[in-house]
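Weekly modeling sync, notes
Attendees: AB, CL, MP (scribe)

Item 1: holo prediction request
CL wants a bound-state model with arginine before deciding which constructs to order. AB pointed out that an apo prediction alone won't tell us much about the pocket. Agreed to run with the ligand included and paste results into these notes for async review.

Input as submitted:
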Amino acid sequence: MQSQKSNKMWGGRFEDGSDMLMQAINASIGFDQKMAEQDIAGSQVHAEMLRAQGILTAQDEEAIQSGLRQILEELRAGKFEFQVELEDIHMNVEARLKDLIGEPAGRLHTARSRNDQVANDFRLWVRDHYDLSIDAITALMRTLLDQAKQGVDWVMPGFTHLQTAQPVTWGHHMMAYVEMLGRDLSRMKDGRERMNECALGAAALAGTSFPIDRERTAKALGFDAPCANSLDAVSDRDFALDFLNAASICAMHLSRLSEEIVIWSSAQFRFVKLSDRFSTGSSIMPQKKNPDAAELIRAKIGRIMGANVALMTVMKGLALTYSKDMQEDKEQVFDAAESLLLSLAAMTGMMADLKALPENLQAAAGSGFSTATDIADWLVREKGMAFRDAHHVTGAIVALAERQGKELHQLDIKDMQALCPDINDNIYSVLSVENSVASRTSYGGTAPVQVRAQIARWEEKLKE
Ligand code: ARG
């Protein structure tokens, strides 16, 4: 089946219209309409530059600007009619401009191609989402800092292999995520800085014979400079890959925190209580309160990382410069960016509401022989034992506790002395989780004095 006549935007050399299937596979308007505002911003700046360079008359430029303004209003009011025959956002806007102002609309595309236009629109869209991500990550970091401050000395078990390892503090645990998100923030800022060059003016691929001013366009759109190679400008999508890469790592961090919340909020752990606002019930089991938000955030890495792999796969092996393959660059980037922002916002809300339960944390902190390392350290420090020997003796003490069904601080001194005559009553001082935690004052350690210093450092840093 064929659709109408040859294409009114590029159909000069065509006699027949496109097959419906051609239209279906070719059109991007279903998704690239998300870049409508970026497309108009690019056109406004391009037209202004063309007039400043004497390529467009003032009269034509005014007509174009007023038409573009009206289109923007139509878009914002939801009144703009997207047409699939017009393929993409660029031709939809231009066709509407023609309806509105007639002949001058056709002059807007002077010294421009859809190749540099789409690269520019997409860059602007990705840049906006770098900025939104930077804000969203910062907001989550602030929330985690609040959590850390509140529970800077609440002891809890620290885990390796999800087995109780050594006592740590809630504040320390929260601050671990602040560090991760701090790196995400720096990756986002770094990617944004690297991408901030303007593709407009590269035209189809080779530049243009018109006396354009690329510096001017770049500056007007908030870019640091024009892209220096026109071939690269129209065919580069690194900026989106950088974003997806940073987004994937950030989503991975969110996924890990989500997993902990799922575990911590279970009836078996009861380390934290989720608010009603960020949990759901079960339609069959009335007692249930499910951590759905955490589970969904835990899963979002799938689509975000998927987008990263998808775009890398689209781009690999593409000869310079533009190929239509590159139209497949957008949908997943849009989805990944929106998924990341939603995850960050939901995580921020959930963590702001989340109540840690200090008594339960404390009770768990002391179980599982979590202060065994402190015994070994005590034997080294107080008795001059080699750490390996101390480790061995402590292992025997743990086995004893296990046999007697006791925690370490409940052991009888005589039983311990039977295993190691050097041991005296002072050992009890290191068996409490509070002392264990307070003793780990090495830089970056779990002692509240260290954690407070890290909180202060990040609070200062986030003020910038
Ligand atoms: N819709 C196209 C895209 O998203 C715009 C660029 C089209 N360029 C071309 N030479 N056909 O990539």
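Recorded for review: The radius of gyration is 31 Å.
Action items: CL to compare against the apo run; MP to circulate these notes.
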